[in-house]
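Tokens for chain A. Residues wanted.
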């Protein structure tokens, strides 16, 4: 306790630090090694769901949340791009009426103007 008086930490903080368990869990080490092995077998393309499914079929039961946690600890990420699912517009917008009703034939210039929304991949996400 002379160290606590010399350097200034509280005795309770020192006691908490001294009583902590510093043991490494064998199960956690095994899970990390298996996750790293499966991820490298897939050439970096397996995500947490794939890793969890592959390990469970091999006999090491693992949820996708645990696989995600172990992958974050190892700084592993899937190299596959996420799928972009376009939403199909089933209903017209309530505030904007469809006055054109797909009749694009105009009697004179600048009578009808319309636009198109195009999705563009910007490298990290879809933009339009």
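Reply:
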């Amino acid at each position: 306790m002379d160290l606590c008086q010399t350097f200034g930490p509280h005795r309770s903080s020192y006691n908490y630090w001294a009583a902590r368990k510093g043991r490494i869990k064998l199960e956690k080490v095994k899970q990390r090694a298996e996750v790293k092995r499966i991820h490298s077998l897939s050439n970096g393309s397996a995500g947490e769901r794939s890793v969890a499914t592959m390990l469970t079929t091999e006999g090491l039961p693992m949820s996708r949340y645990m696989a995600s946690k172990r992958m974050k600890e190892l700084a592993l990420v899937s190299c596959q791009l996420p799928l972009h699912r376009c939403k199909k517009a089933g209903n017209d917008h309530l505030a904007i009426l469809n006055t054109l009703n797909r009749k694009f034939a105009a009697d004179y210039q600048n009578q009808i103007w319309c636009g198109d929304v195009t999705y563009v991949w910007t490298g990290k996400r879809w933009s339009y």
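Helices lie at 2-7, 11-19, 26-41, 48-57, 64-73. The longest helix spans residues 26-41.
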